[in-house]
Specification:
With about 60 residues, this protein is mainly alpha-helical. The protein has helices spanning about 15-25, 30-60; strands at about 1-5, 10.
Length: about 60
């Protein structure tokens, strides 16, 4: 899903990620579940991004 090219730049495979996300949302049976799952996913991404940013800041000191 996420790879580096020859120049070292990140490349994100949107299609592969979309398939993964679609599999999660396919389990939802109503709008409330879709909204709940969306919140869970976004909260987790925000939390993990903050943790990785803090780790990178410590590594770069």
């Amino acid at each position: 899903m996420l790879k580096r090219n020859e120049e070292g730049k990140l490349h994100f495979d949107n299609f592969g990620f979309e398939l993964l996300i679609d599999g999660l949302f396919d389990k939802c049976k109503n709008i409330d579940e879709v909204e709940w799952l969306y919140k869970e996913i976004t909260d987790l991404i925000e939390f993990r991004a903050e943790e990785f940013e803090e780790e990178l800041e410590v590594e770069n000191e």
